[in-house]
Structures are given as C-alpha cells and as structure tokens.
Amino acid sequence: MRIPTFQTLSKDLGATALRRGLNLWPPFLAASVHVDRISADFREFDVSLRMRPWSRNYVGTQFGGSLFAMCDPWWMLGALRCLGDEYIVWDKAGEIDFVSPGRTDVRTSIRITDELLDGIRAATAARETSSEPGSRSPISAEVTPGIGSSRAG
Questions:
Q1: Which ranges constitute the DSSP H helices of 4-152?
Q2: In the list 49, 114, 115, 123, which could disulfide-bond 137, CB 3.0-4.6 Å?
Q3: Which phi and psi (to 5°) does residue 71 adopt?
Q4: CB 19 within 8 A of CB 38
Q5: pTM of the full predicted structure?
Q6: Which has the closest alpha carbon to 71: 6, 150, 153?
Q7: 65: closest CA among 33, 20, 38, 36?
Q8: pLDDT of 11-24, one tens digit each?
C-alpha cells in the first residue's frame, strides 16, 4: 500500500480548500505562516508571517527559518499546477538574503508569470534535445523586501 503524499492528497483541491488545509498544516502553524490567498489559477500567492513569541529568534526578530518557510513552497506548487502532469517540478535549492530584521508581521506576494512558465518550458525543451545527460537550466526567484512582492527571472 502506498502512503499518500501531500501532492496526491492536494492535487484535486481547489485554491480555497488548499489554502485552508495549508493554514492547518502543522509546520506552517508552528512557524506562524499564514496563507492569505491563492488565486484560482495557482499563479498568485499572498502569504504572511505573523510575529508571535514562538516565532522570534534570540534577539526578538522573526526567525530566519520561518521567513524561508513562508517563501519556499509557492514556486514549486504553482509550477506543478500550471504546467500539468507532463512536467516533474523539483525544488532542489534555495537561498535567502536577509536585508533587514523582521520586527513585525511580514508579508509577501508570489506571482508566477507567463514568462516564467515559458522559460521553464523552453529550458525543458532544450534539455530534451541536449545530448548532455542531466543538463538543466535553473530558474531563479527573488523576494523583495518591504510589504513584499516576488518575481521570477
């Protein structure tokens, strides 16, 4: 018997049901991550990190791991939903630059553009025609400081 994964359980859920489920997911609850909105087409995600006593680090600002958790899954989740079953999306690496300390609630908006999806499709097509095994074209994403917006390039 196969143990169901989050992906198999959530594959048929709409954006609202998935948002509600993610807001009850223990890792997000413990980190004070709250999914405010997921668009119906899974291209837009609004997420906040609430300042709580258990989400503060030693010096009283937002814990860096929680900031990372707040931003991490949306590119993969959106790409999985937008590209369809013929694509395998794997989040292999991540990086974060802490621009300033988070002393209050933090928000970000993730937007998956047509250009990003076209870039993934083109990189995949180039890999399929490449004779080099395991070749890949990385896609990078940047979360900007402040109220927060996110773009990919």
A1: 6-10, 15-23, 26-31, 64-71, 73-83, 114-129
A2: 123
A3: -100, -20
A4: yes
A5: 0.77
A6: 150
A7: 33
A8: 678 899 999 999 99
